[in-house]
Design brief:
alpha+beta, two-stranded antiparallel ribbon, two-stranded antiparallel sheet, 5 helices, 6 strands
């Protein structure tokens, strides 16, 4: 069964020309449904971030998260790092052994190291939003 498709080009003489000049714009422009909201944040001169499907009740939180997004990403990046499960500091010799282990094992960490839980990561992100100051 053939799928019905729209003709994009027609042959005129020896050339193919677009049937409609607005085909790309019609399909890739920013159309919003009636009653939809969009939050726009200009984070730098000429740079914008958009958040769609924002409602009046969620707009303040979404705005706070857009403004503090970089701080959230930095906090999450720090929270997901692998770290030793024990708080005991390593000696320089032990750190060198661990670095060699990571090189030899293709970036793997020793099995006794741990990583943050999803809860810890979400806490770090929320704290970054709450602590963010313009």
């Amino acid at each position: 069964m053939e799928k019905e498709t729209e003709t994009l080009y027609k042959k005129v003489g020896r050339k193919y020309v677009p049937v409609a000049a607005r085909w790309y714009e019609d399909r890739h422009s920013d159309h919003m449904q009636v009653g939809a909201f969009r939050l726009t944040y200009a984070y730098t001169d000429g740079g914008r971030r958009y958040e769609y499907d924002v409602t009046p009740s969620t707009a303040p939180m979404m705005a706070a998260m857009l403004v503090a997004r970089q701080a959230m990403e930095d906090a999450i990046r720090e929270a997901v790092k692998m770290r030793p499960a024990t708080p005991k500091p390593y000696t320089k010799k032990q750190l060198a052994i661990i670095d060699q282990f990571k090189k030899d094992m293709g970036g793997m960490y020793p099995s006794w190291w741990t990583e943050s839980t999803i809860y810890d990561i979400s806490e770090a992100a929320m704290k970054a939003v709450m602590d963010y100051r313009l």
